[in-house]
Amino acid sequence: MSIEHFIQVAVNQKKHAIDFLEQTIKEYHMNELTNGHMGDTPSVNGVHPLALEYGAIISADDPTNYTSILPAVGVELINDSPMPGALLGRGFKVEEVTQDFIDEVTAINMKDRYDNGMIMSDKTLTAIQAMKTAKGSEKLYARRKRYLQDQTMVISMWSDHIEITDMLYLVIHGALKRLMDDFSQNGAKNVTVRGEQALYNYEFGRTLFGSEFNITLVNSIQNVAVDDSLETIKSYEHHFDETGKEGPRFQPIAEDEPYPEE
Q1: Which of 24, 164, 182, 250 has the largest CB neighbor count within 10 A?
Q2: Confidence band for 90, pLDDT divided at 50, 70 and 90
Q3: What is the structure's pLDDT at 252?
Q4: Cα–Cα distance between 32 and 69 in angstroms, integer?
Q5: Is the sign of the CA dihedral 97, 98, 99, 105 positive or negative?
Q6: 240 with 213: CB under 8 angstroms?
Q7: What is the pLDDT of residues 171-207, one digit of tens each?
């Protein structure tokens, strides 16, 4: 018996947000809007801008004359907790692993797989192909168990010009409204955006001006185990009675039925 594991996430939200913001902010021509005080695209990273600013000071030969990375935007995942009521995974499914699926994944390089929410190494893919080949005319199956997670990202923007921070706030606010739709189309649910302005920092010898957004969403994370010992397809979902108490541990559903909608 052989088992190979990989992970499938509905939205790789942090990577997706960074790429989306880099492209979208560029469309507003920030160099012109700020009269040349910044380029069309600020530094957009997966780290808080002020942490990077401290890093620039520490790494400089002369800390009093370092090169600032501001204005900059940071995208951070700060909370990842189970969705209330989604006990031990909202759904469980066994499905066939087809050669078409293996071929499709093989055609995607590992970085692009990760960017799109699939955590699968080339070694794992090679092992799955070997399992499929060894099965011959028999079918190969995988167990999928889905977990729903409440996730929160913070998007921070900082500069040493209040006008630039205010303008970035408005531009990013508009971009995030578009990102909400993009997340939803890719499988995330309950996407909301909340902004906070008027943040200040005085630890760098000058006043820095900041703003932040919180993005909350429900993300779907699937643990997938390709198991060459499985011989039948079965799908299950959690069952709860009208009082909210958990009933039978699993309730069978049709083989071709998708995970139940939330």
Answers
A1: 164
A2: low
A3: 41
A4: 19
A5: negative
A6: no
A7: 999 999 999 988 888 888 889 999 999 999 999 889 9
| Contact (Cβ atoms closer than 8 angstroms) between residue 14 and residue 77 | yes
How many Cα atoms sit within 13 Å of 127 on the Cβ side? 15
| DSSP string over 191-260 | EEEEEEEEEEE-TTSS-EEEEEEEEEEEEEEEEEEEETT--S--EEE--B-TTS-B-SS-EEE-TT--SP
Q: Are 144 and 222 in contact (CB under 8 A)?
A: yes
Locate the domains of the chain by residue range.
Answer: 1-12+76-262
Higher-scoring residue by pLDDT: 86, 246? 86
pLDDT of residue 241: 44
Are 95 and 141 a contacting pair, CB within 8 Å?
A: yes
Question: 121 — phi, psi (to 5°)?
Answer: -80, 165
Query: Which residue, 21, 76, 17, 19, is CA-closest to 52?
Result: 76
Smallest CA-to-CA distance from 6 within 219, 222, 187, 218 is with 222
DSSP string for residues in 11-39: --HHHHHHHHHHHHHHTT-HHHHTTTSS-
Please report, in angstroms and rounded to a whole number, the separation of the first and last CA atoms in the chain. Answer: 35
